Amino acid sequence: MRLLFVHQNFPGQFKHLAPALAARGHEVVAMTMKANQPAQWNGVRLVPYAVGRASTPGIHPWLIDVETKVIRGEAAYRAALQMREQGYTPDAIVAHPGWGESLFIKDVWPQARLGIYAEFHYHPEGADLGFDPEFPGTDDASAPRMRVKNINNLLHFEVADAGLSPTRWQADAFPGPFRDRITVVHDGIDTAALAPNPGVKLALDGHELTRADEVVTFVNRNLEPYRGYHVFMRSLPTLLRERPNARVLIVGGTATGYGRAPPQGTTWRDVFLAEVRPRLREEDLKRIHFLGSLPYDKFVALLQLSTVHVYLTYPFVLSWSLLEAMSIGCAVVASDTAPVREAIRDGDNGVLVPFFEPERLAGEIARLLADPAARGRLGAKARSDVIERYDLLTRCLPAQVAWVEGLAR
């Protein structure tokens, strides 16, 4: 079968799926906005394309997001027309619609079946928007802005034949009747590679950390409120007083990925570090280590070193890092928010705490740091659950492949 992937940052969520389909003998092509790519990647032929214009200056602010997606959709549309003129016609198209690239793809190939990665549908309440009263992000125009932002999803629903979501909560956020066309399959976790390593070591400030050290880890792509960075930082003065030997290793960049930007000239990392600094003794401050963004192998080693791993998030897209930490066997303390509750059951394979209670968070982390038996039990159950429910090779990838092949048929 001829299978076409559309993703502006390919492979993205399809990094395992597209090569697996190519290995099964399908002709797999991917359209991407990445420049300077090779012609082939893991059996997948890459077709680059580029946008031809920027957004219109002075456009109505509610329409900026929509226009950006239309511009990207037009670019992919024109690249697809060229592919059609060269004789290419796919049997099925798998697209991440989040940036608009696949808006007009069925106008080029109306007979091809289209499956979309149904990652997130916006709501003015009940999800991320308005969840955090400190950063409400709401005003009298919130509801109409969210409705306009969902135009991209709604236009895709008219032409898409099926959807794929990584969690049930994300799937259920989409409206009916399209919700009934969504299959829930996670992207998958390589549990063989993401496994415990008792001999792991990490050099830090002239000291070599091992599993014998007390290490608290916190990982985000970017350090920002959406992923609970402010709550975590507010827990540290209490935690570090209670655990005088603990070291806190924080991974994440300083850009803004989601939500409101910090005050001009600052970063969220520095804003909340400055907030808690008066409550930190100098010796405690020295035990907080900001590691920035890490290469993936260093990130894995960090999780393997972790004594307690902390994951916090608004009700939003679930981070891969949570399941990766569970696969490694980390004892996890996480926020009691959706969709975290799909992965963690409190007291069974991790610990859930209310998102807005930093003192409670500090107490649960400290309790686990003092209890090796509890950590071992939670970590072992976390790993077994990820192997059973989210393993890439035995669970998720076969289901994804079946979904695509069924779509094409």
From TrEMBL:
Organism: Ramlibacter albus
Record carries keyword Repressor: no
Gene3D superfamilies per UniProt: Glycogen Phosphorylase B
Residues annotated as domain Glycosyl transferase family: 24-193, 213-384
BP-aspect Gene Ontology terms: lipopolysaccharide biosynthetic process
InterPro entries associated with the record: Glyco_trans_1, Glyco_trans_4
UniProt GO molecular function: glycosyltransferase activity
Protein name per UniProt: Glycosyltransferase
Keyword Ribonucleoprotein: no
Residues spanning the membrane: none
Keywords, sorted A to Z: Transferase
